[in-house]
Design goal:
heterodimer; A: 114 residues; four-stranded antiparallel beta sheet; two-stranded antiparallel sheet; B: 460 residues; alpha+beta; six-stranded antiparallel beta sheet; 28% helix
Chain lengths: 114, 460
């Protein structure tokens, strides 16, 4: 069973096809996700949807996820609302400014057709 | 009329208040530049400075700007380097006065002119504005400011590049401002150098992108860069970025020769998306920049060319950054060692929460993180790491409440766990945590016509 699945799809970790930087705006974290090579950008556009990212961060954010495209930079920008326990000075989190949501997103694994 | 220069070089010296003290000195000595730009103000900074000013009316600005000026002013004056900095915080005049005293002490009298930009501080006008129907609704929550009116500690409108341009036109060598946008400090020298018009939206957008690229200092020259992070050379001597701009709005990002770090397309991309909202609408007082039009090109080692930037007209509003008293918080930590480090830290957390409940203490929030296990990546980390063999785990627990006494009592419940909780615990050298006042951030918009920037230029 498993072998068959492997033939049909390959698993790709975002860390291997993209880099990222994240920051904050109030209680919202932003993650800029950048394709390591131009040919990876269409993969990001197709598979790293706002819904997929919201699922990835389930339990870590309380609001919706917005996605914006920057084809000129081969990049996507995500806004993760309600990610920072109130944000800025209110937040009790170690990562109150959302600095490492970047690499948290890069943990995401995609299942791509072979 | 003087001939228009073909280019202007603007160097970033500080990306935030507390950034590397060596960076501005290295920027003015490491090679030719025309301007040194230093960004000091974050959202929280204004309320901290307002608090300092309320205790001593001569304070309220970035104090370490003065010893820095003492170090670089003679060099800047000799080389004709001009300085733009929002180090003035909530008291730009006092800051300028301190700079002037320093200049006189350095025998630079007659050689330095200081520009001061004020008019951003709305704290004294706030009650009147609210009474006249300006609601200053929170941009995130939609709530009217009247709900927290009696707890406001600071209120500053974001001014753009134009008051800084006015100071430069008035002959200022150093422009000290209050809450001028980070990007305006870089855009202003370009406007001044090339005579850009207030409705040259593409050019103003290009200058804004230049400002955004270097406003965080080394974050676009190899610092905090994820791509090939351990291949970036000599971060110990990292070169801070320099914008070399042309009159047509194109610019190159580079750094002084012989410095560490790296200027690459990938690194610049990381900075461009930093703290980004809708990339097609990067709104500033000077206009709207469309980040989806930016073209990047590597033009040799440590040199990236930026072109193609398009802009749109400015809105008729200014953003206002308001700080208001919110409550209290405290965070305590303890470190648990192998074996069972994670389980011991979890047990300590349960015991502590039980004790807080037994005491009847109420908090708006209690947050537990296990540093070394899940503090930054939460459930994503727990799902992938082997948690039973961690060499140590730091229990980090924080509380937040409007009730200072409850937060105070919490801080006394950490240390007892060392002797009356789970074993193999250490790392309490820092002592009991202190309850901290929370000044929260309230972003709002105000009609541009309400805010009147004031520009003065004084000869030292």
């Amino acid at each position: 069973m498993r072998k068959k699945a492997t033939r049909r799809a390959r698993r790709v970790r975002l860390l291997d096809i993209a880099h990222a930087r994240s920051g904050d705006k109030g209680d919202t974290a932003n993650v800029g996700l950048i394709a390591l090579k131009p040919e990876y950008y269409p993969i990001l556009v197709k598979h790293v949807t706002a819904a997929r990212v919201a699922r990835h961060f389930k339990g870590m954010i309380s609001g919706p996820v917005e996605r914006f495209e920057l084809p000129n930079l081969h990049a996507l920008n995500f806004l993760l609302h309600g990610a920072l326990d109130g944000g800025g000075t209110i937040s009790l989190k170690t990562d109150a400014q959302g600095k490492v949501f970047s690499t948290a997103l890069l943990r995401l694994e995609l299942e791509l057709p072979k | 009329m003087k001939p228009q220069p073909a280019s202007v070089r603007i160097a970033a010296g500080q990306g935030f208040w507390g950034d590397w003290l060596e960076a501005p000195y290295r920027q003015v000595t490491g090679g030719p530049i025309d301007y040194l730009m230093m960004d000091y103000l974050a959202e929280v900074t204004m309320s901290i400075l307002q608090k300092q000013k309320s205790r001593d009316p001569s304070l309220g600005y970035a104090k370490d700007f003065i010893p820095l000026m003492e170090r670089i002013l003679p060099i800047a004056a000799q080389r004709g380097i001009k300085i733009t900095a929002n180090a003035g915080g909530v008291n730009p005049r006092a800051c300028a006065q301190a700079v002037a005293e320093t200049a006189r002490r350095l025998r630079l009298g007659g050689k330095v002119r200081i520009g001061v930009v004020t008019g951003d501080d709305l704290l004294g006008r706030l009650d009147g504005l609210l009474a006249r129907g300006h609601e200053l609704r929170n941009l995130d929550t939609g709530r009217p400011l009247s709900e927290v009116q009696d707890r406001v500690v600071s209120a500053n409108a974001y001014l753009g590049a134009w008051p800084v341009v006015e100071a430069l036109r008035g002959g200022a060598d150093i422009v000290v401002t209050g809450r001028v946008t980070d990007t305006g400090l870089t855009l202003a020298p370009m406007i001044h150098t090339f005579g850009w018009r207030p409705d040259a939206w593409d050019l103003l957008a290009a200058g804004t992108v230049a400002g955004h690229t270097i406003e965080c200092g080394a974050q676009c020259s190899g610092g905090n860069c994820l791509v090939d992070w351990d291949g970036i050379p000599d971060l110990a001597n990292v070169g801070y970025p320099i914008v070399e701009a042309a009159a047509d709005g194109t610019f190159e990002i580079t750094k002084h020769p012989g410095t560490g770090g790296r200027i690459s397309v990938a690194g610049v991309k990381e900075q461009l998306v930093y703290e980004m909202g809708n990339p097609a609408e990067y709104i500033t007082p000077d206009g709207i920049a469309d980040f989806t039009t930016i073209r990047l090109e590597q033009r040799g080692k440590d040199r990236v060319r930026v072109s193609g930037v398009r802009g749109r007209p400015a809105t008729d509003k200014l953003k206002v950054s308001i700080g208001y008293f919110y409550g209290y918080k405290a965070v305590g930590t303890l470190v648990y060692a192998w074996p069972d480090a994670y389980r011991k830290a979890q047990a300590a957390d349960r015991i502590l929460r039980q004790r807080l409940a037994n005491l009847g203490l109420k908090f708006e929030a209690v947050l537990t993180e296990f540093v070394g296990a899940d503090a930054t990546h939460g459930p994503l980390a727990r799902a992938s790491a082997p948690l039973d063999q961690l060499p140590e785990v730091q229990l980090r627990i924080g509380v937040r409440s409007p009730d200072k006494a409850a937060v105070e009592r919490f801080t006394r419940e950490i240390a007892p766990l060392i002797l009356n909780g789970p074993p193999s615990v250490t790392g309490f050298a820092g002592g009991r945590p202190k309850p901290e006042e929370i000044v929260a951030y309230w972003p709002a918009l105000i009609d541009k016509r309400i805010v009147e920037p004031c520009v003065e230029v004084v000869q030292v």
